[in-house]
Amino acid sequence: MTGLDWAVLIAYLMGTMTIGVALARRASGSLEDFFVGGRDLPWWLAGTSMAATTFSIDTPLYVAGVVGARGVAGNWEWWSFAVAHVILLYVFARLWNRAQVVTDNELSELRYGGRPAALLRGAKGFLYAVVLGSIGIGLAMLAMVKVVEALELLPSLGIELGPGGRLWTVVGVAVFVLIYAGIAGLWGVVVTDFLQFVLGLFGAVVVAVYAVSDVGGLGALVEQAGAWPEVDLLAFTPLEFNGGWIPRGWSMVAGISGTTFVAYVTLQWWAFRRSDGGGEFVQRLAAARSEEEAERAAWLFNLLHYVVRTWPWVLVALAAVVLYPDLQDRELGYPRLMLDFLPTGLLGLVVASLVAAFMSTVSTLINWSASYLTSDVYARFLRPEAEDRELVTAGRIASVVVTALGAAAAFFAEDVTTLFRLIIAVGTGPGLVLILRWFWWRINAWTELAAMLAGFIVGLATSVVPLFRIDDFGLRLFVTSLASVAIWLPVMIITPPESEKTLRSFYRRVRPGGPGWGDYRRATRLPAADNLRQDSYRVLAGLALLFGLMFAVGGALLLRPWVAGGNAALAVAGWIGLRLLRTEAETE
After folding, report:
1. What mean pLDDT is predicted for residues 269-284?
2. Which helix (H) or strand (E) holds 49?
3. Which of these, 134, 93, 124, 445, lies nearest to 289 by C-alpha position?
4. Residue 345 needs a FRET pair 20 to 30 A away by CA distance; which of 108, 270, 311, 465 works?
């Protein structure tokens, strides 16, 4: 990093702070202003912010590590969530927008009633903010530490510090984020998210272009990566298609057993705690101006997240394997390429893009976790009579608390991939209940509480406790999911359903489709606001469009014309299906 590189980075940081201060007034009016932007976010800003939230500094490092160890097919660990995200688009986005909540936990006391609902809301608020939120912030901080060390940022300033000192420099950046996130609330987060996403994507493309050029172009990259002896780097799935469409059997992709791949595709998307959206996604959808804008925001997120930015990361990861065959920590391939091949000035800009990715995720996690502590714990149980100004102050204090906890989590973390898998494991189990609560009146608060705690305890035990640890990740997910079902199903049977008053009130507010609310539909004389059958067809068509586009782009970049052509046809079929379904809906 030269003086010019540092000047570019500092200019970016100052610009971000200026935006945060300029938007501070919009966050100071009420709790809704601070945490859901006054429910006035345009779809393009909400959707880009959702994409920026999932693009942290850890993600390019994570993809580099996954591809280096397990090939392109290793990305199914996060590609599988596309199923849930398309269902979010056509089913849950409108439901969350109609619910009009500040946090997704607030739904607990709309859907359920009495003390069990209050207990569920408080438990989820504490668990998601203090435990999972802190792990998420720690994950981003750990990746930032790796980048600081790999790029030798401190030595370039003449500062020599040990690992602890490097971590504290990252904490300093997190405190910087805390300042503008705490001042500006959600509006400051999403506006800076937009700029950070554009800069982060630009940085990923720049690194990909320089890395592939140094290898000798796409042809040379594909040739050398295809000859890699340890791992089948170029397989899109563990089930190969030997140049055409004839299955050749399970490939030897290191670390992806048949069990794990099946778990990714068939289980992970519905068993995870965000099966119906959840977390910061709900925050953005609840902040959108209307149901239609919430749906558009969800589509934009899916396109940006899966189609646009997947392949720059993959190309960089493949180039890192080819150029650094002896690199021990594959997660460092991304920053190593930056340092070795980017010219002065451009290096500073791409470093700024990684800092932007770090800041976008951390700012969102801070705002999201603080919303749980403030709305679901402080305002609900400690100070229910608190006025808006006091709640905004409490939100800012909560932001400091979760940032400190995230820094503590980073001290104990070792690598990005392990921490990412831990987040998935401890969040697996309650997903089916979270889906069913929208469409079946019989689900009660005790059922959801049992599913959440069972999944968390079993996922944690099978991940970190030596006696119960399951190394096969797919088997770990299966065990966690089945154990959760074995606990919540009996709990549902032996506990009473929610009161008629609570169930009718929820139906009037949300009006979900499907047969599970038939009695309440007749009792309230209110028709369902959604056609669940038609929405299911839209989900299938949307999946064809999304996966078709993603693999058509990947097939073209990796010079696999059969893959590119077949998936392009699949995408066209999905698009035609969506158009026909829209026409059918408009004529009904």
Report:
1. 79
2. helix 43-53
3. 93
4. 311
Q: How does pLDDT run across 9-26, given as a tens digit for each residue?
A: 788 777 777 766 666 555
Sheet strands (E) in 234-332: 239-240, 249-250
Three-state secondary structure along 298-320?
Answer: HHHHHHHHHHHCHHHHHHHHHHH
pLDDT digits (tens, 9 = 90+) for 327-350: 888 878 888 888 888 888 788 887
Amino acid identity at 545:
L
Spatial separation of the C-alpha atoms in residues 440 and 512, rounded to whole Å: 9
Closest C-alpha among 544, 545, 533, 517 to residue 588: 533
In tens, the pLDDT along 121-140 reads 888 888 877 777 777 777 77
List pLDDT tens digits, range 479-498: 999 999 999 999 999 999 99
Buried b (16+ CB within 10 A) or exposed e, 358-383: bbbbbbbbbbbbbbbbbbbbbbbeee
Q: Which helix (H) or strand (E) holds 370?
A: helix 346-371
Phi/psi of residue 309, nearest 5 degrees: -100, -5
Q: Is there a contact between 437 and 449 (Cβ–Cβ < 8 Å)? A: no
- Residue matched to tokens 């669940």: 532
The one-character DSSP state at 103 is S
Sign, CA torsion 204/52/255/546: negative
315 pLDDT higher than 90: yes
pLDDT at 442: 95
Please tell me the distance from the alpha carbon of residue 461 to that of residue 106, in angstroms, as a whole number: 29
Task: Name 239's bridge partners.
Answer: 250
pLDDT of residue 27: 47
Q: How far apart are CA 146 and CA 333, in angstroms?
A: 11
Q: What is the pLDDT of residue 157?
A: 59
**Secondary structure of 413-446 as H, E, C letters:** CCCHHHHHHHHHHHCECCHHHHHHHHHCCCCCHH
C-alpha angle 339/343/349, rounded to 5°? 80
Nearest to 112 by CA among 578, 482, 448: 448
Out of 18-32, 264-278, 282-296, pick the least confident. Answer: 18-32
C-alpha separations of 272 from 278, 310, 564 in Å = 10, 22, 30
78 CB-near residues (< 8 Å, 6+ apart): none
Query: In 3-state terms, what secondary structure has residue 472?
Result: coil
Cα dihedral 337, 178, 130, 62, rounded to 10, equals -10
Question: What gap in Å lies between CA 400 and CA 334, rounded to an integer?
Answer: 31
Contact between 481 and 406 (Cβ < 8 Å): no
